[in-house]
Structures are given as structure tokens and as C-alpha cells.
Amino acid sequence: MPRTDQQLAELREESRTRILQGAMELFARYGYTKTSVRMIADHTGIAQGLMYRYFASKEALLRAVLDSFMQQVAQILAEAGTASDPFEHLAQIIRLSFELIQQQPDSWQLFYAIRVQPDVVAGLHEEINILSVALMQQLEIPFRRASIANAHNEAAILFAIIDGVCQQYVINRTIYPLQAVTTAVLAKYSRATLTGATSQ
Amino acid sequence: MPRTDQQLAELREESRTRILQGAMELFARYGYTKTSVRMIADHTGIAQGLMYRYFASKEALLRAVLDSFMQQVAQILAEAGTASDPFEHLAQIIRLSFELIQQQPDSWQLFYAIRVQPDVVAGLHEEINILSVALMQQLEIPFRRASIANAHNEAAILFAIIDGVCQQYVINRTIYPLQAVTTAVLAKYSRATLTGATSQ
Amino acid sequence: MPRTDQQLAELREESRTRILQGAMELFARYGYTKTSVRMIADHTGIAQGLMYRYFASKEALLRAVLDSFMQQVAQILAEAGTASDPFEHLAQIIRLSFELIQQQPDSWQLFYAIRVQPDVVAGLHEEINILSVALMQQLEIPFRRASIANAHNEAAILFAIIDGVCQQYVINRTIYPLQAVTTAVLAKYSRATLTGATSQ
Amino acid sequence: MPRTDQQLAELREESRTRILQGAMELFARYGYTKTSVRMIADHTGIAQGLMYRYFASKEALLRAVLDSFMQQVAQILAEAGTASDPFEHLAQIIRLSFELIQQQPDSWQLFYAIRVQPDVVAGLHEEINILSVALMQQLEIPFRRASIANAHNEAAILFAIIDGVCQQYVINRTIYPLQAVTTAVLAKYSRATLTGATSQ
DNA sequence: GATGAATGAGCGTTCATTCAT
DNA sequence: CATGAATGAACGCTCATTCAT
Known about the structure:
Four copies of one chain form a homotetramer. Chain A is mainly α. In chain A, 73% of the residues lie in helices and 0% in strands. Chain A has helices at 5-30, 37-44, 51-54, 58-78, 86-103, 105-115, 124-145, 151-171, 178-188, 191-194. The radius of gyration of chain A is 20 Å and the shape is elongated. Chains C and D meet through α6, α7, α8 and α9 of C and α6, α7, α8 and α9 of D. Chain B binds a DNA duplex through α1 and α3.
């Protein structure tokens, strides 16, 4: 008895997700280059050939993995600013960012690695830029709401801090003092500091 | 008649440099993995086999490329702090960093790519860490001399800013507003701001 | 529709056998070193890469070839001594040995070549020694049963004769008078000679 | 001041000998395939290119090495038979053979390895055959002088014994009981045994 | 839809040989 | 005569991709 279209669609969706999920894990753990299609097949329990029904190539799979990751990140950060107080909003974003990096450092490492590699995935650059711009705009909001001068540049600098700290952490997870730096960054972006108390 | 020792040494030095230089360019442009030994040979105009007279392996070549780069960077930054005024010192370091990234963005891109890729070169992580620590210590000096509280964390944050900004620039050279950000960072680390004038 | 497990097993078995067989022929004909993986692929009509699904390396393939050969030899010689009379037993072994060398001289040649080459295959030496010792022990039995003095040394000498003759034959198949030598060896190890009739 | 022709000839001869000697050592120690031309150059202290002035190729060098070895062996064995008594003559040959193998097992191992390898050196087979035949003829003499029946086959068998024993020894130098086997072979070819005393 | 055996281009590397000096 | 840097064909091997079932 043939399956209904819906059943087929579900089957497809499940396989696709399984591959995507498994690839994400392995790419994150071993890096894109060192992860072979066979490894993905073994890890996910599907046949090698099947991957090519869902993704045109290994590179396309990487793209899908990164798309999924970036979408996730975009969504999480979009939901970040619930605080009405702009300084608290800022603090939330900072805290959230450093939590995210701790939760799945491997994925971020993959992202960072691909991001600096020119031309590994055609067209990915643009997407990454879109994400970056979106994040920076998110970041700009609280500065603007707090009437901080030069909100755009402030956002760029905070973005750079977060980026830089996250990357240092990812590279050197055991040693990097993420807690201390988090505290320091929060202090630097506290109401007291930003509104000009004597010491920052 | 055999060549003299000096002729030989010159010949060797020239070939070695040519390979190193060409490899640097290609690694930076296409990434380590996507650059094949054949490509290096073709690009530099030497035979494939010759590379192995000067470098034990493709990996050793990468190491040499990175070592050369890191040594250069370490030296430049070590000579950065000539100003007696700690705030000027800070400004010098910031300016210099952003100049360096503009001067050879390809090399930095390669460096950033390798840095987040675990295990591409055995033992390289340690070297990179040593460099990072050295740079952070350089950065700490002016904060300390300026009697800024929590100099260590301040250095970490400034380091993150520079790292983050440089990486953004490298990824998106044409669009990233490096000038504006430089100015903003300099303002943020000016005497006026750090010693607590009303607005930062 | 995926193949059934049995179909798969058959497919695999056929490929494996084909590679093993082809490798045996080429190794025997050209020697291990001069036989390239490409040659084996071309000769057997399979793709180069496929070999590595069945054998971990070219060396592993050689090992498999030799193991298969040695196992065969060990089994054949183990079944050699069916005669109740020790002298007839001896004669059977001698005849059988010289028959075997005629039946597959190439395989023996490969075996002899590898045997004198130290370190071509790690750990193979021990296996070869085990086989040698086993064969010598086989050889010792009839001497002992015939109450010949110094059976151990007699076995060593007969072993050397067989080895020496086989090797000469293999090197120079067209010219070496294997028949005549076989007859002479049989005479030397006949009951009459061994039990001390006037002439040997 | 130009050198005289004779001086040049001596220079040539010395270089040639040096290469030949060094190659022999390395071929014997590591085997032909595993010895690179560079290794020979380093070992002998001459330039790589120089080898090609004296030998057309690495293979030609091997040929020369083996020629030299075979010639040496032929000469030694030719001088072996000084005893007037044919049985003593036989004993001398046997003893000498087993001494030779102990003196330079590496060289013999090289010889054995090349000998069973088809086509490694073009035309070498014939030379080896010539040597074999010469040695067998040497061996035949005492049998004939002792009026042993079937001297030709007896020589073939003794030749096989020596060959087999030497090879076993070479393969397994530390374990093979060369002394005991030597004694046993000498006993087997003693006057008493050959002329038909009761036990062999 | 799913399987995994099969393919073959391309990789990093070695090394006998050549050649400018 | 002697040197050793330079060459490039060939090696063993990997792995993204295809295809028969």
C-alpha cells in the first residue's frame, strides 16, 4: 500500500533533519574539511548516497548547516531585548551572547572558521554579512534608546568586543576567563559607566 | 665547476623565499586546505618536488609561513610603545593595529582561519597563545601606567575590540568602516574618556 | 531498491577475490615493489580506490596474498603424511613439494622474494618462521618414525634441499632439471639408502 | 697544471670504487629499493650527480655491485679445492660456504633478494646462471674424483643444501643453528657416509 | 525512497635523473 | 672532474560523487 503524500513528506523531512543535525555535529567537532561524507553517513545511520537526494553536494550541506545555525542565532538574538530599560537591555544582550558561546562553542567555532575562509561556500559571505548587519542593528537599539551619542559606532565596538571575546573563548576554552571578562564588559556597559560616573 | 658556497647559499635563499612568499599569498587567498602543492609550484614557477628540499611537508610550510608572520607581528608590536604618556601609548597601539590589518589583510585572514581550526598544525595553538598573551601584556602596560583600575580586564577587552574589528574588516574589506571605528575606539580610549569626563 | 544482504556479500566477495587474485599474479610476476596499485586496478578491471575498501593498504594486500598462500601450503603439507610407512611418507612429502612448486611457481617466487626482504611487511617474518618451523616438524616425523639418528638435523637438511631445489627451479624454470633432481632426492631418501645399503 | 692521464685514471678509479663500495654496503643493509641515490651520495661523501658519470643508472650500479660480489665469490670458491683427497675437498667447500655466509650475510641477502626478483636487472639472470653452473661444476669435481655415482645430481643436491641452509641462516640469523647443521652436513658428506658405512 | 559498491580525479610526497655552474 | 639545486613522472592513498539494484 503506497504511502500518502504527507507520509512521504514527513519521511523526507525526517531524513533531511537527521542528516542536517548529524552534519552539524560532525562539522562542529572535526571541522568541515576533516569531516567526510562517509563519516556523516555512519554517524547518522543513513547511506552515503542518500545525502545527495537532499543536498546537492557536501558544500550545499555545509551551507544548509550554517543557514540553520545563523537563523537560530538571529532568532534568539531578536528575542533578546525584552527589557524596557535600555541599559538592562544591553546587559541582557551581553549576557546572552556569552551564554550562547558557552552552550555550543563547537558550532560557533565552525561558524568562525568558515566566516574567515574566502570562497569556501559560494554566496555565504553575503548571508553572513546580512546576519552581522542585523545583529549590529539589534545592538544599536539600546544605545539609541539610552540616547548615547554615536550609537552606530558604539554598536560596532560592542559587536567587536563580543566577537573578539567569543572567539578567544572558543579558541582557548579551558583557560580564557570568560566570567571575569563578562563582568568587566557588563561594568563597562552599565548605566553608571555609560552615563559618565567618574571611573568606568 | 661547482658553485661556490656563497652562490649556493644565495640560490637556496632565493628559492626558499620564493616558495615562502608564494605559499603565503596562496594560503591567504584560497586557504590552506584549498591550496595544493601543485598550485604553489605553478604560482612560484618552481617544481613541486623542490618544495620538499626546503620544507618537510605542506604543513611545515604553513608553519613557516605563520611563524614568519607572527614573528613579524610580535616585533612590530613590541616596538609600538615609544610614547611616554600612557594614553598616547594606548592610542599608538590602536592606530598601529588598524594600520597593520590594512597593510596585509591576507596574512591576517590566514592567521585568523588557522587560529580557529583546531589541529591543522600540531603545536601551533601554543605558539598562538604565547603571542596572544604577549600582546595582551603589551596592552596592559599603558593601562597600568595610567593607573586604570582592573588593568588586566581592560587589556582583555581592548584586545577583544581590536581582534573583533580586525576580523570584521578582513571579512568585509570593502564595506567595513574601519576609519570611523578607529576614530570611535580612539575616543573611547582617550584620556578624557578613561579618566572620567562626563560623557565617554 | 537496495540489494539484499546476500547480494551484497556476494558482490563484496567477488571483488575481494578478484583483487586478491590479480594482486597475486602481478606481485608474483613483477615483484611487490614494481607492482603499482594502478597496475592492479587495471589488471583486475576495478577502480584504484576500490582496493582500499577491501584492504587497508597495498602492504595489507600483500599480507593477505601471502597469508592466503601460506595457509594453503600449510594445509596441503599437513595432509601430506598419509602413508603408514615412514619412508613412503618421506617420499610423499618430497614428491608433493616438487609438485607444488611446479603448480604455482609464481606464488612461490613471490614468497621467496618477500622472505629475504627484511621489513617489507611488518611482522611477516614471524609468520614465515612459524610456517618454517611447522614444516620442519612435519619433516621430522618420518625420520623419527624410521628411527633415523639425529632426526632434527636430518629434517633441517632435507628442508634445505627442498628449499634450495625449489628456489633454483623457480629462478630458472625452463632449464633446471627438476625431474632428474627429484629422482635423485627420492633415491637419497629411499629406505635402501637411509638404512645403509652400500651405495647411497 | 693539468694532471697526467694516469692521475686522472686513478682519480676515476678511486671515485668509482668508493661509490661501488658504499652502494654495496647500503644495498646490503637496506635493500636495493629502500636505498636512494641520495643515501649513497651522503654515505660515500660524493655528489649525487657524480654517480651518473660512473654508472648509467641506479640499476646499472646495482648490476656492478652484484657483478663485483659474484666475481669475488666465484674466485674464492675456485680456490677452494686445494685438498688432494676428494672427501676433504668436499668438506672444505662445505665449510667455506658456511663461513662465507657468516662473514657477510647482508651481501648474500641482497644477492638472494635480487636473484628471485624477476626482471629487476635486465640480463642479470644469465650472469647468475653462469655463476650457479660454475659453482655446481666446482662441486661436481670431488664427487667425480671420489667416483660417486651420478656426480652431477649429487652436486645439484649439495648445492641445494648449501643454498637452502645459507638462506635460512640469512633470514633468521640469530636463531638458525648453523653450527649444528654444518656438522650434520659434513657428516652426511664424509667419506664414511658416502662410501657406504652402515648408517648414513 | 534507500542502499552501499564502485568510480576516478586529485591529493601530498618521493626520488631517479638532469643540468647550470 | 665535481657539485647539488632543480625537475617531473610516478607513487600510494582519499573521498566526493555516481549508479545499479
